Structures are given as C-alpha cells and as structure tokens.
Amino acid sequence: MAIGETASRGVRVATASLAATLLAITGCTTALEPMEPGSFYRIAADRIGGAPGTILRSEQMAGAPAGTSAYRVLYRSTGLKDEPIAVSGIVVVPEGVVPDGGRPVIAWAHPTTGVANRCAPTLTPNVFKQIQGLPEMLALGYVVAATDYPGLGTPGTHPYLVGVSEGRAVLDSVRAARNLAEAQASGTFAVWGHSQGGQASLYAGQLARTYAPDLKLAGVAAAAPATDLAQLLRDDIGTKGGKVLTAYALWSWNRVYDAPLGPVLDPAAKPTVDAISADCIENLGEDLAVARLESRINTNFLHGDVTEIEPWKTLLAQNATGGAPAGAPVFLAQGTADETVRPQVTFQFAKSLCETGTPVRFDWLPGVNHDRAAAVSAPTAVEWMQGRIQGLAAPNDCRRLPPPPNVASSG
C-alpha cells in the first residue's frame, strides 16, 4: 500500500508503516515526543561572541547517569558562511580522579532525528539512552560531548547531511567541554557517530587539523556512516524510509544552498515534504495520520534522477566523505543486513580511506541492520578509541580488508 493513499484508512496504515521504517533508519526505538525549544536555545546574534567552543549558556540537567553530572550547553560554532552561530548539546562528566592533563573527551554524533528545530536530542526525555556506548565511555573516565548540530534546538535551518556544518559542530562540542569548568577536560579527543553522525564524525576528522588545531584528535569511529550521498539516495529512493530521507535533504538544501526544487520535485509532493520536515522521527507517523494528508510520496515524486541534476549533483559530491585523509586512524562498523547504508558502499569507502594511507579497523556485523549498528558495535568502538587515546598502535586491516559476505576477496 503506497504512502498517502487518499482513503483515510490507507493514510493511517501507510504512515504507520513509514514510522516503523524510520525507526529502523534512525535507531530511535521509543515514541517519546521531544519538547519545544525554550529560551535556553535562543540568543541574539550580537551575543554570540568569543572563539569557537565558547560556552554561551549552560545548565545542569536532571536524570544524568549514576555517578555523573550532565550539563546542557549552548556554545559558539561557525556557520557555512563562516559566521558565528549558536549550537546546543550536552556534556556528561564522570566522577572520580582527574588524570594529569585533564579528562579525555569523546564526541558523540547522533543519527538522523529530523530537520525541525524541536528534533534536537537534548529536547528528548531519553537523551542519555540515545548516546551509544555512554556507560562504557564514562566508566573509562572520559567526558562525553554530544552536539545537537546547527538548527536542531537552535533557530534556523538544520543543514542536514552537510558535512562541514556537522563536523564543525562536533569539534566545537569538544572545545565546549574543555571550556566547561566542571568537566576538567583535556584537548585529547576521539569522535564516534552513527549514520548521519558517522558522516559528521568523518568530517570532524578531516577538518580537525585546520579548524581545531588546538585539539589533539586520537581517532574517528563510525557505524554505518553516510559516505557516498549520491549512492545512498540511489539505493534508498525506492524505499519508504529512503524517500523520507530524500525529502529531508531536499527541504534542507533548498534553504541552506538555495538549491531549486523545481527541477527535482513533483509540485504535488511539496505539501507532504513540508509536513514531514516539520516533524521529528518519533512523532512522524502520528502527525501524518491525524492530518490525513492525501498527497502521496511514491517513486515518481522526483523528476528524473536527483543525483544527476544540477546543482544537486554537485552538492551531493561536495558532501561526500571520500577522497580526503581522515585525520586519524579510523574504526568502521557495518551491518551485513543494512538496507539503508548498503554494505558495499561502506566497504568501498574503507578501501578509499586505505588508499590515503589512513589506518582502518573494519568490523562486519553479521545479520545487523542499520538501526542496530551503533548499539552492537559500541563496546568494540569504545575499546578501540581507548587504545587510540592511550597512544597504542592502531590496528590496520588495509592490507586485506575483509569483504562483504557476497563479495569475493580481491586477494
């Protein structure tokens, strides 16, 4: 049954299916609705001062994991036009003895939650449960910084899957952790992300040397990262969830880049795209069903191949993660049952990293789909990051990358 059928029952069944698909895409397994952003997230442009990572506002949060304290922070970052912007996030600080030089930091980069301002993880009641590997990271004495990304929580358009925007926000979350007195954080850090957050982590690694030379990057870990965006859209456009991710990108990039929708989007689908983009993953199915939207998102909601139409083709290539050294050793985890980020795409990305001389640890997750990739790989990823933070030699699978189960080894 297609999404958005005109019969009332059809709309409800289709949107319920869409919501279920999106849960699989994003790893969100609860239906807790985010709050609306309050005054904490709003600040006048002329008050966004200081260097990137400067804390503009902070408050202690309730519900932090036992033995820790957590702080919601509003910090200064840099927009796509190099302008000062405010970004929200959280910093979680473990108890215990602070090592000489301060506590290392791990920056978590979250998967897709939506593109509306209220889709920020810090606005959800279960924000701590969304950070994969949080207990393990805190047990090692690491400070954990988790950005919302620009435009989530804070006003403005979220630059969805825009690598430079995400990467800067991740790096500045580490700086914010250092600037939070209670954290007593050092400049040594690693980054760890899933899906959209995998892209963010990889971009943070690529940008670290030039954008944040004051920090010491130890390693980059990513589970099922969004790397080749054009291939991602081609693979997913025939699926319910993939069509929604495409809608998010169209809606966001139309505003961020002023990329025209006319050449790529069926006008009849625009109201549905706008409605989807106004809501968050957790509440998407419910809201569409209540609104009884009769527009349909089907395989014909785009004009031709968006990956071949300018300026979309160039923008997709511009935000791909391949072709540049990662800035530090890399850990990649990929589920073999992933139908969103296809195993072959991540495998090819790993090969491209190896060609830049980057040491790569590559782990296949047998039978694991997209939503479970970070949860399943988190213990191994955290152990790998611990080794990099300790300065141990990075394991390297580049001499013989383990191919996907259905791809023969090249020898």
Automatic annotation (TrEMBL):
InterPro entries listed in its UniProt record: AB_hydrolase_fold (IPR029058), Lipase_secreted (IPR005152)
Pfam families linked to this entry: LIP (PF03583)
GO BP field: lipid catabolic process
Listed SUPFAM superfamilies: alpha/beta-Hydrolases
GO MF annotation: an example: triacylglycerol lipase activity
PANTHER family in the record: LIPASE 5, PTHR34853
Protein name as annotated: Lipase family protein
